[in-house]
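subagent[fold] <- orchestrator: predict structure for attached chain, return tokens only, no commentary.
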Amino acid sequence: MALVELDKLRDSYVGVPGVSGLSVEQRKRLTLAVELVANPSIVFMDEPTSGLDARAAGVVMDAVRATVDTGRTVVCTIHQPSVDIFQAFDELLLLKPGGSTIFFGLWAIPGVSPCPLNYNPANWMLEVSSPANEEALGIDFAQVFSSSSLSRDMDAAIAKHEVPKPGAAPLQYSEMHTSSFGAQLVANLRRDFTVYNRAPEYNVVRAVVTILIGFCFGTMFWRLGDNRTTVAGVLNIMGVLYSSTLFLGISNCLTVQHLVSAQRTVFYRERAAGMYSPFSFALAQQLVEVPYLVGQTVVYAAMVYWMVWFDRSASKFFWFCLLFYLTLHYFTTLGMAAVNLTASVQLANVLSSFLFGFFNLLAGFLIPIPAMPRYWFWAAYLNPVCWSIYGLVITQLGSFSNESITDLSGVTMTIPEFLSSRFQYETYMEGPIVVILIAFVLAFSTLACLSLKMLNFQRR
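subagent[fold] -> orchestrator:
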């Protein structure tokens, strides 16, 4: 912290770029400090002064110079540096278009007039080594350098250091990372909990939406849960289960995407530094949601279940909570997967909205599965919302085999028989549905992990 002059800011939050927290140059110095934690002997930096004014660039380069003074080597790309920044470097590597070396050494280019006094050396080098100037002088600077003593000295130094010492064994690593997967997971979990605590707006929004939706559905369907004497009453109960599943699930899916997108930016930088594996990062990102989803489920269930006045049974309340938790979980992991599959939050929203339309139409409620065309009914079974509604309906209504209703055609049947004939809902499917919903959670989680590992949307 002292090396990069951040010791006075040790208790400050990093914040959101351009919104709060550290300034741009302070963030760059913090990035340098993070890399120095591992005590590397060499540090590679790509344009550390880009986007900074002269004062901020000077502060950053002072930190870089202080790093060099500790005995480390810094290899740094700089585009058109100022005189002060240029003079902070010990050696210069100058490349021409195409990547060929023009010069590598201290302070001169053979065959070219020296840099004038009070002139920016960087601008001078760009001018004298441009392709147009090479053509005018009839000189290929890359060829001049390759035949110079500087090039021969450089090749000799490289060859000398390439030869291993007698008895030295080649470097071999059995693992990609120095710490175990468990240690990486614990470290990522701790950080994610800290992020959630320092970004309360995400969970506050989720809590407010949960309470509002629960209040709306609870008051709209006030005490309709025990009205099972008519087909309309049964459909009303199914309607609140269907609506609340979609509304709250979609809210979770969309809300999580902004947070995941911000974390992905951090992941790209830290993956390049080899800090941890993508799977430990993605798994921690999903595990940190569990306690919040449990709390969200309990709050919503406590409101809706008793306001709608579903059957007063401990086992049915447990089933309601379990199935609703799994529903919120797969919607949340779907939101994470949508972000990791796309380049921006906007595209993730478009992809999610496209899926929501199919989830709605193929949920098996608006159009019961028996009424679907043969070429579409199979898609309902690939729809997680269909299984959520299926499970919620049979756990709340499937046990009333002693209660009868009369459908529109005048046929009297029990509630389980009505569910079976109208919707193909079978009461023995509670256990298999739980397994199916867990499978959807795992599938979306795996998709989020794999897309994070295999896709990279960095613009650099």
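orchestrator: received. Logging for downstream: The chain has two domains: 7-155, 181-454. The chain has a mean pLDDT of 86.
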